[in-house]
Amino acid sequence: MKADFHLHSSFSGDSDTASEQIVQAGLQRGLSAICFTEHYDADYPYDDVCFELDTKAYLGRIRELRSVYRGQIDIGFGVELGLQPQLGALYHSYVEQYPFDFVIGSTHLMDGKDPYYASFWEDCTPEDGIRRFLEITLENMKAFDDFDVYGHLDYIVRYAPLEPKRFLYGDYGDLMDEILRFLIDRGKGIEVNTGGYKAGLGCPNPCPEVLRRYRELGGEIVTMGSDAHTVEYVGSFMDEAQDVLRGCGFQYFTLFRERKPVFIRLD
Ligand SMILES: [Zn+2]
Ligand SMILES: [Zn+2]
Q1: Of 74, 117, 124, 226, which one has the greatest count of Cβ atoms within 10 A?
Q2: What residues does the ion ligand 2 have nearby, CB within 5 Å?
Q3: 10 CA from centroid of ligand 2 (Å)
Q4: For residue 33, how far is its CA from the centre of ligand 2 (angstroms)?
Q5: What is the per-residue pLDDT for 249?
Q6: Residues near 140 by Cβ (< 8 Å), separated by ≥ 6?
Q7: Do 80 and 28 contact (CB within 8 A), yes or no?
Q8: Which ligand is nearest to the Cα of residue 82, counting in written order?
Q9: How many whole angstroms from 190 Cα to the centroid of ligand 1?
Q10: Could you tell me the residue ranges of all domains in the chain?
Q11: Which ligand is nearest to the CA of 6?
């Protein structure tokens, strides 16, 4: 079966796509389950995009879509939280207020700055930026661990000015192992984010070396998501992601319903 557990619609500040269009794209591509994971990045420092989330309206829309598409496709209610070390208490009480199926914790900001912008890299080398990104990821999960999976763990390589754009596990293995052990000790998963293919990396985020290491250290929970913000990427590169997972020693991928993992055998 195919499932896409990382999807954005116009409830996210950086998407204009109606959520019903995402559902229809999922149906067309033969997905059995999808989960919306709209952005909520509290304290986002830039004015050109707003990453607040109207969660009540979003939940209402999910309930409408579920009643329209019942029996055709499972529609999950999820959120992607942009973590920062000072936001732990705020996100703890936020997550408790809503009946989420699935919560992704992600690092989008580093010391209050977004590495998406080229100006970020004027002040640091690619290697220092990547290392700092991992240090902050560890700080973020220590401040808030009420998520189900950590999103796109090596996402920083999409933006670091390196050629080729590749995460070299060997360069950061000490920190990455600390992150993976932290997650495994708390029963947390990671995701295979196929947006890495879209970004031209030739692999998902994180890269196979990190997925394999998570498995070697005893990790078992891996969700799959496209991180689509438009219809064209819904369900994209899922066959490739399943191949990568099998190659890294996994036999199952994971879905979440009501914050509980459900293990699905890889095709
Ligand atoms: Zn993200
Ligand atoms: Zn996302």
Answers
A1: 226
A2: 80, 227
A3: 12
A4: 17
A5: 97
A6: 83, 84, 85, 105, 107
A7: no
A8: 1
A9: 13
A10: 3-265
A11: 2
Q: At what angle do helices 55-69 and 19-28 cross, to 10 degrees?
A: 40
The pLDDT value recorded for residue 130 is 94
Name which of 182, 175, 102, 110 is nearest 145 in CA terms.
Answer: 182
In this prediction, residue 166 carries a pLDDT of 79
Low-confidence ranges of the chain (pLDDT < 70): none
Distance separating alpha carbons of residues 14 and 17, to the nearest angstrom: 9
> What does the block give as tokens for 146?
């009420």
Residue 170, pLDDT score? 85
Dist. CA 152 → ligand 1 center (Å): 7
Q: What is the pLDDT of residue 164?
A: 83
In this structure, which ligand is nearest to the CA of 106?
A: 1
Note the CATH architecture for domain 3-265: Alpha-Beta Barrel (3.20)
Distance 106 CA to ligand 1 centre (A): 6
